[in-house]
Amino acid sequence: MKTLGKTTWAIPGGHIPLRSTGHEPEFTSRDELCLLNTSDQEANVEIAIFHADREPVGSYRLKVQARRVRHIRFNDLIDPEAILLDTDYASVIESDVPIVVQFSRLDSSQAEKSILSTMAFPAS
């Protein structure tokens, strides 16, 4: 299979709602990444988090096996520090092999839940 994607992606619109309604963990408010690695090599991925009022945090490091997809909740990123809830942030995702990155948000802060999904910006 042909290797698809880019090595650097940006997502400027991060924000995890503080509140959630419904059963956990399936209805926990969250931001989420979907990483697709179509290459024949394992992808080493680093995520940096940018804030409006302080220096970037990271790198959050993870792997995506060759020819696999991996979903990661930003809520689960805790090392070097947990992602702040109810705070605007942005992220830059870098990989040593091309990958495809999709961003999703589930907002369950009200009984009427909403979900959005979009492709990240392929920077390079």
Number of strands: 8
Number of helices: 0
Beta fraction: over 45%
Q: Summarize the main sheet.
A: 8 strands, antiparallel
Q: Would you identify the regions where 5 or more consecutive residues have pLDDT less than 50?
A: none
Order of helices and strands: EEEEEEEE
Q: Please state the overall shape, judged from the principal axes of the Cα atoms.
A: globular
Q: Which structural class matches the secondary elements? A: mainly beta
What is the averaged pLDDT score?
Answer: 93
Q: What radius of gyration results from the CA coordinates? A: 15 Å
Helical fraction equals under 10%
Written description of the protein model:
This protein has 124 residues and is mostly beta strands. Helix content is 0%, strand content 53%. It has no helices and eight strands. It has strands at 6-14, 30-37, 43-50, 57-64, 68-73, 89-107, 114-119, 121-122. Strands 1, 2, 3, 4, 5, 6, 7 and 8 form an eight-stranded antiparallel sheet that branches.
